[in-house]
Batch of 4 targets.
Target 1
Amino acid sequence: GIYDAKYEPQQIPTNSVTHVIYAFANISSDGTVQSSDRWADVQRRSTNDTEEKGNNAYGCVKQLYLQKTQNRRLKTLLSVGGWSASKHGQFNKAAATDESRKRFAKSAVKLATDWGMDGLDVDWEYPSNPTEAKQMVLLLKECRDAFDKYAAANNQTYHFLLTAATPAGPENYKKMDLAGMDP
């Protein structure tokens, strides 16, 4: 990251990678997906930034966009959650009801598309029982539907990417409905 590691998005060797996953967006108590660090994400000025009028993105989001202009095949995904969000039960709340899943999906798609991302990575570590596994599948389906509706409403034929960070260890992946995640 940009803080302790002092690793900037413009340092990513984009000629050597196909995808960059930008982590993490937060999940609020009502299931809304939002920036976890607005200053770093869209406000922080880089040394090569010029002051522009309007509501412009700066920060890491702008730097990732500039990387995409240098490598048109580069895909960027916004990752939501991670260990911290998972251990505090934010995914459980966001995935619990049809209403909260819709709120999560709508806000995640809005944030990802506003930031020029090519998709979304859902990093729920990890569903721990059959109910949560089912809720994760429903959450992913809601996100897929929201991306497809966004594309249709904006006359886009682009198929936004949707990924899920899943565990490698059997003690966790056996609790997931992996087959249900496959459309």
Target 2
Amino acid sequence: MTLIGVVLLEVLVAFEQIAVATAMPTAAKELDGLAIYPVVFAVPLATAVLAMVIAGPWADAIGPRVVVMTGVGLFVGGLLIAGSAQSMTMLIIGRSVQSVGGGFDSVALYVLIAMAFPETLRPKIFMSISAAWVAPSLFGPPLAGYLATNVSWRWVFWIGASLAIPALVLLLPAMRRLPDVVREQEPAVRVRRRLVAAGAAALGSVALSVAADRPMLPAVVLAIGGLVLLVVSVPKLVPPGTIRGQRGMPSIIATRALLGAAFLGTDIYLPLMLTRQHGMGATEAGVVLTVGALSWSLGAWIAGRRSTYADQRRLARTGLVLLTIGISVALSAAWPTTPSWVLYGAWLVGGGGIGLAYSPLTVLLMGMSAPDEQGRNASSLQTAEMLTTSVLLAVSAIVFGGLTPHSHVAAFVSGLVLAILAALLGVVVSHRLEPVTPARAAKEAYVVAGDQ
């Protein structure tokens, strides 16, 4: 029951992130808010970053129970506000509250899993969470599109709100069994510094998101300002050495950030590439995303069957190599003369690559985290991935927009080259995933039940 609750809650968070993009144009038109359309996405991104940074130390200090319950309450409340919005401002407020709840839950669920399940089961549990994003990516956009066109865009929000409470009910028995956690609180000065850094990072991510929709000169100014804020703030939100990909915990976080950014930095361009360069319709072009999602699911299933920490490291490295190969082959489809089936095959490989690598990195992170650091490290992992992806997408969008009037081929190539560079850097950093201390290496020597 606990696993069902975890997966259902993760599915809802994923659905609301993916499906909203489909329904939002209809909502913005009805609420007369097209002029501030980018803000509907930028502000919730910022509040999600703040929520993740807060949730980690909070879960470490008192355990995940209260954080999860608070997150679900805010998630449901935000969805109800957004679904009932009578103005664009109200919609933005609802989306922001929803994102705070989702940020709390995404971090606290990792801590809940670490406390409720033994290390022997974590590969399968985190595999289930990874696979939970497949169904929303397959069915979320068409369902949201149907609701927005034939019923009301408001139901895209209300459906999530109606299912979140049952998910919490399924989690309650496991949360009641968790031991009470009372740990020493962080010094107030350190908390304030982290919140200031999170605010700067959130502002930087908003600047990058808004920059992607502006003319070239304002876009460059906003992008530079956003990057400066991120360069200054991000090192304060992740373990020391993460930016350099230092061996151990920092390299796990850096690898996951690069993995997620490389995948999404490619995924967003593939349907557009098929429609513009190969003349396909939207439905036919969207099949490439289905191929990638199903392949991700298969890769995650394979990863869940491998159990030692050494296996998890090998899977992460193999997955990154496959993702790099998939993106590199997909690049050839920027030319109209390339057969379209090449792109489908490339994303079959790329999707399988991220499926193999994604959950093993989470298993490695939680296994290497001390009990009083699980929340903070989970927060660092997810914050780093979100911000890295924001940077890559914003820079890619600016370059893509600048090149599109001159050459569609050059525009698509530029977008995918950035993703390839991120994936290649991830391959390099993934060779530093081994633990630093001999004590940790000795702890990993056991073989998880079922592996032999």
Target 3
Amino acid sequence: MMKPSILALLAMATALPVTPAAAASADCDKSRVCLQRTLDTYLGALVARDPSRLPVTRNVKYTENGVRLNLGDGLWATASAMPTYRLDVIDEEEGQAGILGRINENGNNNWYAARLRVEPDGRVSELEVLVNRRVGGGPAGGAGGAPPREFTEPHPLMNQVLPQEQWLPRAELVRISNAYFTGIDTGTSSYGVSFSPQCQRRENGNIMASNPDATPGSIASMDCRTQFDTGFQVIVADIRERRFEVVDRTKGLAFGWGYFDHDGTPEKMSNTLERTPIDVQPMFRQPFSFYIAELFKIVDGQIRQIEAVLTTVPYGMESGW
């Protein structure tokens, strides 16, 4: 019996169908097209509940809400529909891609953020996920007495590509955005933070700054700079493990991850420019932390729009990164 030649075996191998994972693992070299394709492949694998569709390295690291899990656990077992609200962030310099939006988990439309590190061969070596899951309780209300809104898409500015002459260096986008965290962590005013007068901030879908529906004079009705000048920051003990993993120069986006620690000790705070002392809400009179993914839109060197996803975690919890 004649044995098949090496050439024949090679021909047979090249005729085999290419799996999605194999197709996505072609040479990537941090190209924008490849990073976007890998992000799309990840989302497709996620809602199919099939991690084998995502090309990953042998030692891929996956965390969900700061806890290290195996691929296939957590959101991988419950995701049921693609994000209905989606902001993509592509960082060609670092070879990373990120997303902020909402994803459906068995009928729960949850706020969600993720980032992926993609190696030159197109395989994912890091996958960090944050999901805000509301368990129990009534419907979430709006900030500052405003009725709750169900946004179906991000603020239009967030996905706009800037003219190339307005692209800032990666380090500058990080510096401007990190000043926001520093202004909360160690500051008591807007000094040192470059805010646009039109700056608006959304947090898990609620407009927390420049909310047109909020009661006039409430802190949610104020723009970002005015809020900082009230001195409300005293309720935040620390903002730690800050990481700007994904920065998209073409859109002026910097994606920061970290923890807001609340130690529960402040008894008084202020939420007006007059800085009249008021009692700190009971929620902030106990130790806990927020795990947060915060996306900053920088236009003309100023923070123009902020979108954040956050969830409560044990006080002092580490990120695992």
Target 4
Amino acid sequence: MENSKMIAKAALELLEKMEIVSVGIDGLGGAGKSTIAEEVRTELEAAGVHVVLLHIDDLITPRAVRYNNNFPEWECYYVLQWRYDYFTEKLEILKKGGKTEIELYDKDNDSYITEEYSTAGRTVILTEGIFLQRKELDGSFDLTVYIDLPENIRLERVLCRDRYIGNDEEIRAKYEGRYFPAERRYVEEYSPSLRADITVSLNS
């Protein structure tokens, strides 16, 4: 919770200079991004700030696009999974103080549902998700946070969390084949823990 308070404080300081602040909470799979984002939202709302919370996992391509047998599985995840152009288009509307409908991916039906989001007055747009410091998202965030947690601990977490994939062996295979190679590429390419405005280093 102390980390969340620190992030909220940094966002509030930015709100003294601008009416709408965009914050990206970056981190690899199982790092705890969504939990911290919810805690930050609670802190900001307690301070009277309107918060819009976006999850990058809601802004992904259909299954037929992101699972393409013409590419290695990790590359499908790293390159084909994300609707970055769509996300940045919608984010820019919100950053300017407006209202927009956003298509959110419904994994149960491999389709999209639409929800309306708006910004008005003192607002923080919180976006949580993986790979938020890639070049495709340059300029999207006024404050970037990176949640750093070792891979072995993250694997322990996802073995408990991602039971929809299957048993332990199936989850390990999925992460070693698809997710971890893409994450390692991201870390090698962008050094996100060094680039972020705030890095939260966890060990459990």
